[in-house]
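Holo prediction — LLP.
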Amino acid sequence: MKGTNNAFLWGGVPVLDLVDKFGAPIYVYDCAKIAQQYDRFVAAFDVPSLHVNFACKALTNISILRFLRSLGAGIDAVSIGEIEHALRAGYETSQIVFTPSSVSLKELDQAAALGVRITLDNMEAIRHWGRKHPGYPVALRINPHIMAGGNRKISVGHIDSKFGISIHHLEEVIQVSKDAGVRICGLHMHTGSDILDVQVFLQATEILFAAAEQFELLDYIDFGSGFKVAYKEGDIETDIELFGREVSARFRTFADRHNPALQLMFEPGKFLVSEAGLFLAKANVVKKSPTTTFVGLNTGFNHLIRPMFYDAYHEIINASNPSGDKGIYSVVGYICETDTFAWNRRIAEVHPGDVLAFKNAGAYAYMMASNYNSRLLPAEVLIHDQHPHLIRKRQEMKDLFRHQTDPPLPF
Ligand code: LLP
């Protein structure tokens, strides 16, 4: 064990030991941090019936889903594949909410056959529902037309966004649902990810409460997610306690008048798992250019696309030399196109072979990874009570060929 005094630990385990044991690159998740965030989220709200459905698109590993289930979470799913993951992890169908976007009517029928809760996001789906699934209540996703989110790519509640049914079409959607004989049991919205300002959330919730007034008997209101977490020391995050206080008071007033058994739902992804994850990779080369010193890693945007895709900031620590003198480095990957994780970042002196650790790798890291450049997907490890468990094996070369058919072509 390399556990020296200044060893960089994750979940109480020296990360260099994890790399020795499981190799690199690798994603490592800490159960304790997930539990801490889950408990904090639940404690922020004071309503009779709160449902926290983990947006499993952020991290779909079955062991993670099982752990969140043990804490009391439900699941927010966007595909049949995600529903299947939740079922395998032991969730009841009543704990799974299917909130897809622009899926086929066939996929909606498949979800109905599985018996989960379903959210519809267009008129055609509602008409189809009445014909095909009479007596199966559904929720509606409403687009409140609010611009919110860390950047435009992850802002989804604005007027140009494809998501949900426009709040301007409320009367029409109520009429269409009535004509189709569909009971609307819930209302849903989700305005974006990495939203910082509590006031923006509250403004959006007001729009949904006003819409909810116009429905007869709702079982639940789902305010989605988008809560911002910290990406670096001192970073501002959503004040979940303030939001919880404000929205709980408003919700209780509404529920007293509308339906005392009304359930309050959320579907956080990042908030629950982002900070629990660490991504570890090794330095292949350190090389100087006229403008910067590059550290080239044995990974790339094929394993962590957020910096290239969203200009996201991920803190990077040299786990092999955590308290060394700092140098200035640009951290890049091995992909055959611009593949920059960080530009001119202060990091403790790096040598080839050092292990660099990326923070906030719990959400949308493994899940957005690919085989680009025919690179293999890394393993995943979950730390529980200071014990690391392998929860996904590293891919092998044969996996790259698994679905290629190699038919007898005339060449
Ligand atoms: N509910 C719905 C309907 C969603 O579309 C999302 C995220 C969530 C909940 C969870 O949002 P969260 O708590 O994670 O912010 N790949 C991007 C984030 C895309 C989020 C897509 N929808 C990223 O890495 O920042």
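READOUT: The first strand starts at residue 9 and ends at 10.
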